[in-house]
C-alpha cells in the first residue's frame, strides 16, 4: 500500500486529521488486544484508494530538544512515505518551526501536499494565501474540528500515488520476521538464507525503504519482506519503540505470513503481544518462532511448559503453530520454509459449500444450537465468501441468537475437519432474508 505521512510541528492538529481519515479494520475476533487503532499508524481509504497512514507526531524521540524532534519526524516522513502531508496552522500563520520542517522537506523529491488546518469557516480562507511562501504550491484549507476540506486535500494526495506494480504478478509467498531488537531476527535471516542463492536482494518493494529478499526452496519462491528494523543505520529515531512497532506493522501489512519471533531467554513482552495482535487482526497467517532455544537448560517438560505459557499469553493465536529454533545451532530451521508454505496454503484455502455444510450439520447434530428465551437458533447453511483470510458466512434465523461460544464451537469443528492451522478464520453470522 502507498504510505501517507503527516508531518508538522506540535499542535497543528495532526492527530485529529489522522483519526478522521483512519479507516476501521475488520476485527477478526472481538476479544483481541486493542491494537487496531494505533494512534500513529493506520489504514485510510479515499474514493476506493487504500493507503497506510503515519502520524509522525506520535513518534516521540526521547531526550531530544524540540528542533531535533521535529527534524527527526520530518526525516521519518521522507524515509517512509510515498506522499507527505505537511500540516500548518491557519490561525497562527507561518512560524519558525514550520520553516524548519519546510527546509527538511525541500530535500526530498517526494510529493508534499500542504494542508492548512483550523480554517474553520469561509472568512478564514483569505489568510491561507500567505502559505504559498512555503514553496509547496497550493495550500489546502482544512478543518479537523469540522471535517471540512478533507476531500479536496485527499484528492490531491491520491493524485500523487504513483502507479506501482505492487508485486501483483508475483506468486511468491511473502513473509516477515517480526520481533523486538535482539531476539535474533538478523541471525535467523542469515541462517535461513545460508548458502541459498538469493534471487534478488535489496530490491525496493512498494516503498523505497523496504528490503525484499527472494529465494527458492523445493521449487517454491519466497519473498522475505523486511522492513522491521533489521538495518541499523543509526538515525536518531531508529531505536525508538514506536518507530520499530510502526515498521513491524508495515512489514505485516506487506506479508502473507508473519513470523512472530520470541527470545526463549526473555519470554513474551507486551510489545510482542501488540504486534502479534496486529497480525491477527489483519487476518495474516501467523507462526510463532521461539529462537535461542539452545540457551535453555532443558528437561523433558521444558518445551511443553514454554508452549503452555505462549498459549496463555496469546489466547487468540491458538491456531498458530509454534516452532522452537536456534539461529546459532540451526536447530529445526530447515522446517521453517515448509511451515510457511503450509500456513500460506491454509490461509488461502477454499472449502466447498457442500463439504462445509456437511461439517456444520454434523456439528449441530452433536451439539444442538442454543436457545435464548425459548427461541432457538436455526442454522440454514454456511458458505466461505473469501480467502486470505478465510471468511465464512453462516446464515441463520436470527443472528442475535448466535452465542460466541457456539460460534467458537463451530470454528473448532471446522478446524478439526480442514487444516486451517496458522490462519485466523472469521465467521460472520447473517440473518437469512
Ligand atoms: P535482531 O536485533 O533481532 O536482528 O537480533 P540479532 O540477530 O542481531 O541477534 C542478537 C544477538 O543474539 C546476537 O548476539 C546473536 O549472535 C544472538 N543470537 C541470535 N540467535 C541466537 C540463537 O539462536 N542462540 C543464541 N545463543 N544466540 C543467538
UniProtKB/TrEMBL annotation:
Residue sites binding GTP 2 per the record: 179-186, 226-230, 291-294
Residues where GTP 1 binds: 8-15, 55-59, 117-120
The entry's keywords: GTP-binding, Nucleotide-binding, Repeat, Ribosome biogenesis
InterPro entries to which the protein is assigned, alphabetical: G_ENGA (IPR031166), GTP-bd (IPR006073), GTPase_Der (IPR016484), KH_dom-like (IPR032859), KH_dom-like_a/b (IPR015946), P-loop_NTPase (IPR027417), Small_GTP-bd (IPR005225)
Sequence ranges assigned to domain EngA-type G in this UniProt record: 2-165, 173-348
Coiled coil regions in record: none
Subunit structure of this chain's protein: Associates with the 50S ribosomal subunit.
Similarity comment text for this entry: Belongs to the TRAFAC class TrmE-Era-EngA-EngB-Septin-like GTPase superfamily. EngA (Der) GTPase family.
Biological function: GTPase that plays an essential role in the late steps of ribosome biogenesis.
Name of protein: GTPase Der
Gene that specifies this protein: der
Amino acid at each position: 500500500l502507498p504510505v501517507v505521512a503527516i508531518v508538522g510541528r506540535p499542535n497543528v492538529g495532526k492527530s485529529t486529521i489522522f483519526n478522521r481519515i483512519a479507516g476501521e479494520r475488520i476485527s477478526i475476533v472481538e476479544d483481541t488486544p486493542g491494537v487496531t487503532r494505533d494512534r500513529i499508524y493506520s489504514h485510510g481509504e479515499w474514493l476506493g484508494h487504500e493507503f497506510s497512514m503515519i502520524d509522525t507526531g506520535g513518534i516521540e524521540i526521547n531526550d531530544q530538544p524540540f528542533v531535533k524532534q521535529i527534524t527527526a519526524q520530518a526525516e521519518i516522513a521522507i524515509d517512509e512515505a510515498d506522499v507527505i502531508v505537511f500540516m500548518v496552522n491557519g490561525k497562527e500563520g507561518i512560524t519558525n518551526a514550520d520553516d524548519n520542517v519546510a527546509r527538511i522537506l525541500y530535500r526530498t523529491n517526494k510529493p508534499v501536499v500542504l494542508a492548512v488546518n483550523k480554517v474553520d469557516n469561509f472568512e478564514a480562507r483569505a489568510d491561507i494565501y500567505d502559505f504559498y511562501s512555503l514553496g509547496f504550491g497550493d495550500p489546502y484549507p482544512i478543518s479537523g474540528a469540522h471535517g471540512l476540506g478533507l476531500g479536496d486535500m485527499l484528492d490531491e494526495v491520491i493524485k500523487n500515488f504513483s502507479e506501482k506494480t505492487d508485486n501483483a504478478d508475483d506468486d511468491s509467498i511473502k513473509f516477515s520476521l517480526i520481533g523486538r531488537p535482539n531476539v535474533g531476527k538478523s541471525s535467523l535471516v542469515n541462517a535461513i538464507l545460508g548458502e541459498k542463492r538469493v534471487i534478488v536482494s535489496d530490491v525496493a518493494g512498494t516503498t523505497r525503504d523496504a528490503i525484499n529478499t527472494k529465494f527458492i526452496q523445493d521449487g517454491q519462491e519466497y519473498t522475505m519482506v523486511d522492513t522491521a528494523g533489521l538495518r541499523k543505520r543509526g538515525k536518531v529515531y531508529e531505536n525508538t519503540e514506536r518507530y520499530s512497532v510502526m515498521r513491524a506493522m508495515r512489514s505485516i501489512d506487506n506479508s502473507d505470513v508473519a513470523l512472530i519471533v520470541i527470545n526463549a531467554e526473555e519470554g513474551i513482552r507486551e510489545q510482542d503481544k501488540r504486534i502479534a495482535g496486529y497480525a491477527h487482526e489483519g487476518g495474516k497467517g501467523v507462526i510463532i518462532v521461539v529462537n535461542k532455544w539452545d540457551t535453555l537448560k532443558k528437561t523433558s517438560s521444558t518445551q511443553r511448559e514454554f508452549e503452555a505459557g505462549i498459549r496463555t499469553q496469546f489466547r487468540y493465536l491458538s491456531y498458530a503453530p509454534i516452532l522452537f529454533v536456534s539461529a546459532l545451532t540451526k536447530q529445526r530451521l530447515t522446517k521453517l520454509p515448509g511451515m510457511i508454505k503450509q500456513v500460506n496454503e491454509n490461509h488461502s484455502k477454499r472449502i466447498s459449500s457442500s463439504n462445509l455444510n456437511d461439517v456444520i450439520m454434523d456439528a449441530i447434530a452433536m451439539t444442538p444450537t442454543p436457545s435464548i428465551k425459548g427461541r432457538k437458533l436455526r442454522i440454514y447453511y454456511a458458505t466461505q465468501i473469501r480467502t486470505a483470510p478465510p471468511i465464512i458466512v453462516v446464515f441463520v434465523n436470527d443472528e442475535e441468537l448466535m452465542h460466541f461460544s457456539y460460534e467458537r464451537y463451530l470454528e473448532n469443528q471446522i478446524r478439526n475437519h480442514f487444516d486451517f492451522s496458522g490462519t485466523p478464520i472469521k465467521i460472520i453470522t447473517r440473518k437469512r432474508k
